Amino acid sequence: MNPEPDPYFSNPRLAELYDAFSSHRRDFDFYLPLLLSAHSVLDVGCGTGELLHLARDAGHSGRLRGLDPADAMLDQARRRTDIDWVHGDLTTVDWTNEFDLVVMTGHAFQVFTEDDELRSALAAIRRALAEGGRFAFETRNPLARAWDHWTPENAREIIHRGAPVRMETQVETPVTGDLVSFTHTFSSPDWDRPETSRSILRFLDSNSLAEFLADAGFEIEQQFGYWEHQPLTDASPEIITIARLL
User: Fold this and answer.
1) CA-to-CA distance for 180 and 131, rounded, in angstroms?
2) Three-state secondary structure readout of 129-149
3) Residues 21 and 108 sit within 8 Å (Cβ to Cβ)
């Protein structure tokens, strides 16, 4: 079974803030050329649909479909009506040989916290891909320990509708194994009360990731540690993977 959508994404107020807190995304510069080179694209966990919006704006004339379990995020995505938006997740759809490219951005791959969830997701992605299709995604490199920086001292603030909105992250410690639990707390002087969401992400190492992909019938075509296509190393913040069907 796939996980329920994070309250961060299900809350209309927070969904409206998502793109502002995620501005200047270098990952889109990486993924956009892949989308433009594929006739049919599925974005799993598409969120507000910003990547697919960019692809259409850049001249993509083929099929673009976004899949997301959070209605609030899709409400933002549906600003564009020339893209196919589907409410659901990989357990609620049954697409076969329909897409040249499947992408998962924004570290959405990390929401699969259990082995069975991950295997089921990869199997669904494999079915959805046409012959020779590719799956592109990223997961944070556990060796870089990104969660060490998810502290209230590193809170972020934006201005939304003329008022400041602050986002604080707090990791539940101690961190053991490959699962990291944390909360986002959003607050603004214009709000009656703060909004809090809790998330759990899985930090797979590169060897474990390769095993899951191979078992699902994928081979790793390319792998990078940075959005500018530098090689994957122990110090890399990301494990960016382009995998092809065997």
Assistant:
1) 36
2) EEEEEEEEEEEECHHHCHHHH
3) no
Asked if residue 186 lies in contact with residue 17, where contact means CB atoms within 8 angstroms, the answer is yes
| Residue burial 56-66, b: 16+ Cβ < 10 Å; e: rest | beeebeeebbb
Taking the C-alpha atoms of residue 107 and residue 19, their distance in angstroms, rounded to an integer, is 15
Q: Which two tokens stand for residue 14?
A: 């927070």
Distance CA 158, CA 186 (A): 11
Please write the tens of the pLDDT for every residue from 110-168: 999 999 999 999 999 999 999 999 999 999 999 999 999 999 999 999 999 899 999 99
Predicted structure pTM score: 0.93
Pairing type for strands 129-140 and 63-68 reads unpaired
User: Which residue is listed with tokens 């009656």?
Assistant: 192
Rounded distance between C-alpha atoms, residue 240 and residue 54, angstroms: 20
End-to-end Cα separation, the chain, in angstroms: 25
Angle (CA) 44 97 131, round 5°? 105
In the block, which residue shows the tokens 């960019």?
Answer: 54
Residue corresponding to tokens 């049954």: 94
